[in-house]
Amino acid sequence: QSALTQPASVSGSPGQSITISCTGTSSDVGSYNFVSWYQQHPGKAPKLMIYEVFKRPSGVSNRFSGSKSGNTASLTISGLQAEDEADYYCCSFAHSSTFGAYVFGAGTRVTVL
Amino acid sequence: EAQLVESGGDLGQPGGSLRLSCAASGFTFSSYWMHWVRQAPGKGLLWVSRSNRDGSSTSYADSVKGRFTISRDNAKNTLYLQMNSLRAEDTAVYYCARELRGTGADAFDVWGQGTMVTVSS
User: Fold this and answer.
1) Do A46 and B44 touch (CB under 8 A)?
2) Which of B45, B63, B98 to mutate to test the interface with A (most CBs of A within 10 A)?
3) B105 and chain A: CB distance < 8 Å anywhere?
């Protein structure tokens, strides 16, 4: 069982926008602005897409944006492209007795129709 | 360019030990907190352990506490994970990752390619 709740799958047509939610608790997402998002293509290492809720690392397309409200963080991909098809994981810093310093979501499979 | 290369993954026996290494290059290794994250086959990511810049402060997920030990050799630019008392549920790809900022709480901006650990008799 993952600490953060994400939808298992989200799909959209090229050019559309999609949003992936990530729901935690007041002990993780709700308490810290250390929420990050990772993209993972099959057989590859994760890639940082968003950090500290809404910041984009250098080189990441501005089609990717992040936000947070209360215990829920969100990743929005606008102008969906075929190359965006991948698994996406949210992550939050936390003081979890079970999961330790960081908690991840179970991942969301994004399909480009 | 910052790069991390893991090694040491192998088939291990239940109750046995393995030692993973992560060689860093392209950045000042001693300036960064470092982490291990694992991914069981077909599953999601799970944070395992972290080390501060000089190795004096470490922490672990409950699932590995008391069995795994993270360490680092800044002279060799290398991070380690000593895995003892292996269990079948430790089977996973193990990634080492660099923390973006030195807070002990921030995102992981550089990842290795991963090394596979399989625990089975």
Assistant:
1) no
2) B45
3) yes
Give, for all 121 residues of chain B, the pLDDT tens digit. Answer: 999 999 999 999 999 999 999 999 999 999 999 999 999 999 999 999 999 999 999 999 989 999 999 999 999 999 999 999 999 999 999 999 999 987 878 899 999 999 999 999 9
Which of A48, A95, A96 is the best mutation test for B, with the most CBs of B within 10 A?
A: A48
Q: Do B45 and A91 touch (CB under 8 A)?
A: yes
What digits encode the pLDDT tens for the residues A11-51?
A: 999 999 999 999 999 989 999 999 999 999 999 999 999 99
Decide if B80 contacts B73 (C-beta within 8 A): yes
- Residues of B in Cβ contact (< 8 Å) with A107: 44-45
